[in-house]
Amino acid sequence: MIRMTLRQFRLPALAGGVLLALAAIYLLRLGNATHAARLPVDYHQTMLFLAGGAGLVPAFLGAFWGAPLIARELETGTHRLVWNQSVPRRRWLTVKLAVVGLAAMAAAGLLSAALTWAAVPVDRAAGDRFSTVMFGARGVAPIGCAAFGFVLGAVTGLLIRRTLATMAVVFLAVIAVQFAVPNLLRPHYLPPERVTVAMTADAINRARMLGGITGAPIVGGLEFPDAWITHTSELRTADGRPLSDQAFDTCFAHAPKTGATGTFGDIAVCLGELDLHVDLTYQPNRRFWPFQWIELAVYLGTAALLAALGRWRIQRDTFA
Amino acid sequence: MQTLHAEKLTKRYGRRAALLDCDLAVPSGHIVGLVGPNGAGKSTLLKLACGLIRPTSGTLEVLGSVGFVAQDTPVYASFSVADHLRMGDWLNPAWDAALAERRVAEVGLDPAQKAGRLSGGQRAQLALTLAAAKRPDLLILDEPAAALDPLARDAFLRSLVGFVRELGAGAVLSSHLLGDIAQVCDYLIVLGAGRVQVAGPVRQLLADHRPATLEELVLDYMSRAVAR
Q1: Assembly ipTM
Q2: In CATH, which superfamily holds the domain spanning B2-76+128-227?
Q3: I need a labelling partner for A201 at 20 to 30 A (CA). Which of A2, A28, A181, A226 fits?
Q4: What global pTM score does this model have?
Q5: pLDDT(B123) > 70
Q6: Contact B91 A86 (CB under 8 A)
Q7: By the CB < 8 Å criterion, does B131 face chain A?
């Protein structure tokens, strides 16, 4: 059954291999440039862009290697040919998932290794490899995500039984999961640390954003040394209660003129005099590798559950 | 020794019963013809026999291993004829490579030809070879010749009889074409409205009933099923 799987996988493997080689060549050249650069942080924008691109890899693997794996057989009726050989259909499914799944993980692992290496000087300079966007394009986490995307594609194909529909659904689903995991799941892999930061005028000027769309008393884009900030509370007064919208609005719209400079000028001075603070929740940077392994385990565990679902359905369902 | 043995065999799709309380006992060593109008449950019975689907209730026992030729004889379009034989070798422990290669040559299939470019008759021959070269005890064919022209159909049925003789196997084939059944089958099952209308050796059925030809016999039982 392994030889049969490899024979059927020949064309998709060839197409994937060509793209993988092109990407690897680009990353090697990029890596040579970043390692030789005097100001590696110049490549920060490129790294953000590449992290986004790396997020598409599991989606493509799911749509182009995973989705057709079963759906194409059911669509063309060849399942009636292959299931009437002497291989039970559960083993047929398991071998297909294992062989192509390992190839998907190897491809993602190679890409991640090349990108992680190319990013070493940039990460060292910018210190943000633990950030929401970068983390998923470093280390071993992409291997898990690729396995998940692939198995999701194959098993969804078993349920939908239409190749094109499966490809579309899986592509979007894998992208959605990659937005959900860093924002909803990853902050809770280990119990976060908490710290209270006084919001002096200086501290406020270091924030990237002040005030919500509805005028809520919030700050955003604060930084805390050697940490990934997972949650920032609203501005709070000395007694721990949220700053009232009214008081915030007063400073925001009618701050006394002091001639202060800084990002937020008079507003920062006005707010700074109110003795405010925010409560930050964060994950220290030393947890980067524990988090990498946890994320790998989360994705691989989910992929294994999906594979079990597929094995159950392929035995139980009726296929005309 | 029985090729097929069914007791109270029932298969429902939702509320519709494709087969209802069917009892069957087909002795081994026959080429069995399965006939009946559309929706009579022919395909359902054959898919149950090869394990592609499972009965809702009742039992169906099949003698030994089964080689199945599905309706429309599906093949992998991107695989060559030789690839298909290799697949048979990979996926079947009892694969008879010599038999497969000889048969492919006899029916004039080019091993290098992609299966997607074969004619309907050639594709059916390839599917039959794949089913037979795993040396099954029973060949099951679901409307294998329905889409073929008369010449290809005749060649296909000859191949089928040849395989059955060579393997010492039984065979069950469903067909709308009573001429095909009359040509190769020596045992007949008439299905109608999800039930077995009649089953028995062709010669005995013809001796016991007044209609003189197989065609009249089948039509007689089919119309009885409709009248009921």
Answers
A1: 0.89
A2: P-loop containing nucleotide triphosphate hydrolases (3.40.50.300)
A3: A226
A4: 0.91
A5: yes
A6: yes
A7: yes
